[in-house]
């Protein structure tokens, strides 16, 4: 059994049963939010019980998740989640906050936080009796789906915009996905995938359409809470594209709060690129979302027409959070900065950290704050931009004298 009570539309409030293949609201087509009986969750699980649990993956939070334990138990799966939360005091000092934790989600099997959503998609596809899953993505949703589906023995059809970085497409090919590189932007890619999914009846892993994906993503918050002994930080910073990740982070925190695992909630720091910040602009200016161009090197958050703006904007507002936009230069700088503490993120992966730096500089967060930065994807995903951030190495002839001269700073 599980503790789901149903799905509620975030637009019209209509309640419906949450079936494994449920997508959007049956009334208005709005995005659904999965609900639980938090009292029952708390009766079934305590923070103390959680500590002694041996499962070292996102599935250790089974009571908070919308799946049957049997589904997970019988599936061949990758180890997703339980990523490290590093306390980085020297970086905290450098950024000007009291305490900084970095949650490195780039260590997931396909090297991004998206593995949490894709692992959930594979479970729900199994419960829906489907063995073909499809999605459109700028890269990480796709590679994580391809990897997690491959582990389960499921087939995948993946639609990517032609500008997706080579490393990410290579991952898809290696995982054996059917890859369709679409001559167009993310919006065109998304539309083609939606048409194909409808035509062929595949399981739909498009975030925002599928309400269960956020339930996978929220496990990052459950982990942060457990790793901090259920003492909440003041802020959690995360990069925002479609808005599903930040909404998932918030959903996890709220479920914990409602089940009595934590007694206060952090504020969210929503970080976008100055070249593509439709969600932050709408929140900051208090007006409806308008599409923007996709001008940023952070391809994972280059989303001009976000698919989940309502949930993301609600999350930022409800948490009394702040919105920060950072330039590509600031993103590259943050990549080097995190790298100098041993953490390697892709551009969108380090955007949250860039946002913390900027928020401190602009006086938006106090210097005695405790902040968690989620690194959402690994730097090896996009080596071209890593080289842009760090430059090329020294080049010498194989001559020790030449090397000695260089060491002397000649
Ligand atoms: C997808 C992604 C994000 C943003 O998540 P959204 O749900 O699109 O807001 C951030 N960083 C990385 C590395 C991602 O892959
Ligand atoms: Zn509705």
Note down, in words, how this protein is organized.
With 410 residues, the protein is α/β, with parallel strands linked by helices. It has a domain at 85-111 and 213-390: Rossmann fold, CATH 3.40.50.1100. It is built from 17 helices and 13 strands. The strands form three sheets. It has a six-stranded mixed β-sheet with strand order 4-5-13-10-11-12, with helices on both faces. A four-stranded parallel β-sheet has the order 8-7-6-9, with helices on both faces. A three-stranded antiparallel β-sheet has the order 2-1-3, with no helix packed on it. A hairpin with a 5-residue loop joins strand 1 (4-9) and strand 2 (15-16). The protein is globular. It binds pyridoxal-5'-phosphate and zinc ion. Zinc ion binds next to loops.
Largest sheet: 6 strands, mixed
Number of helices: 17
Q: Structural class of the secondary structure composition?
A: alpha/beta
Q: Can you name the CATH architecture of the domain at 85-111 and 213-390?
A: 3-Layer(aba) Sandwich
Tell me the series of helices and strands, N- to C-terminal.
EEEHHHEHEHEHEHEHEHHEHEHHEHHEHH
The CATH class of the domain at 85-111 and 213-390 is identified as Alpha Beta
Keywords:
binds zinc ion, four-stranded parallel beta sheet, binds pyridoxal-5'-phosphate, 410 residues, 17 helices, Rossmann fold, alpha/beta
Give the secondary structure arrangement, pairings included.
Blueprint: E1 4-9, E2 15-16, E3 32-36, H1 38-44, H2 47-51, H3 69-74, E4 85-87, H4 89-95, E5 99-104, H5 114-127, E6 132-136, H6 140-152, E7 155-161, H7 166-174, E8 178-182, H8 186-200, E9 203-204, H9 212-217, H10 219-227, E10 235-239, H11 244-258, E11 267-273, H12 278-285, H13 309-318, E12 322-326, H14 328-339, H15 347-361, E13 370-375, H16 383-390, H17 400-407
Parallel strand pairs: 5-13, 6-7, 6-9, 7-8, 10-11, 10-13, 11-12
Antiparallel strand pairs: 1-2, 1-3, 4-5
Helix pairs in contact: 5-6, 6-7, 10-11, 11-13, 12-13, 14-15, 14-16
Bound molecules: pyridoxal-5'-phosphate (PLP) and zinc ion.
């Amino acid at each position: 059994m599980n503790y789901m009570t149903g799905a509620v539309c975030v637009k019209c409030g209509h309640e419906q049963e949450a079936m494994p293949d449920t997508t959007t609201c049956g009334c208005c087509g709005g995005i659904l939010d999965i609900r639980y009986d938090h009292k029952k969750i708390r009766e079934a699980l305590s923070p103390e019980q959680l500590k002694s649990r041996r499962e070292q993956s996102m599935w250790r939070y089974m009571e908070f998740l919308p799946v049957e334990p049997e589904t997970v138990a019988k599936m061949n799966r990758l180890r997703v989640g339980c990523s490290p939360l590093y306390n980085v005091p020297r970086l905290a000092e450098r950024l000007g906050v009291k305490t900084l934790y970095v949650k490195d989600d780039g260590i997931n099997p396909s090297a991004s936080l998206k593995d949490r959503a894709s692992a959930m998609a594979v479970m729900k596809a199994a419960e829906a009796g489907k063995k073909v899953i499809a999605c459109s993505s700028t890269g990480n949703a796709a590679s994580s789906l391809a990897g997690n589906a491959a582990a389960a023995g499921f087939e995948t059809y993946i639609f990517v915009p032609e500008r997706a970085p080579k490393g990410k497409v290579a991952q898809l090919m290696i995982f054996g996905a059917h890859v369709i590189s679409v001559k167009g932007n993310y919006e065109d890619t998304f539309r083609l995938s939606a048409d194909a999914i409808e035509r062929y009846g595949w399981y739909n892993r498009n975030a925002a359409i599928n309400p269960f994906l956020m339930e996978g993503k929220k496990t990052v918050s459950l982990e942060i809470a457990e790793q901090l002994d259920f003492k909440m930080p003041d802020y959690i910073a995360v990069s925002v594209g479609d808005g599903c990740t930040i909404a998932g982070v918030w959903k996890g925190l709220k479920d914990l709060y409602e089940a009595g695992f934590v007694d206060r909630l952090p504020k969210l720091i929503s970080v976008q690129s100055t070249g593509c910040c439709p969600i932050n602009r709408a929140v900051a200016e208090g007006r409806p979302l308008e599409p923007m161009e996709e001008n940023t090197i952070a391809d994972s958050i280059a989303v001009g027409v976000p698919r989940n703006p309502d949930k993301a904007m609600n999350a930022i507002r409800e948490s009394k959070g702040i919105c920060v936009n950072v330039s590509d230069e600031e993103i590259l700088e943050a990549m080097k900065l995190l790298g100098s503490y041993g953490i390697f993120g892709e551009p969108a992966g380090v955007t949250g950290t860039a946002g913390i730096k900027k928020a401190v500089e602009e006086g938006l967060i106090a210097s005695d704050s405790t902040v968690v930065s989620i690194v959402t994807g690994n730097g090896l995903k996009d080596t071209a931009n890593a080289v842009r951030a760090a430059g090329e190495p020294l080049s010498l002839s194989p001559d020790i004298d030449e090397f000695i001269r260089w060491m002397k700073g000649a």
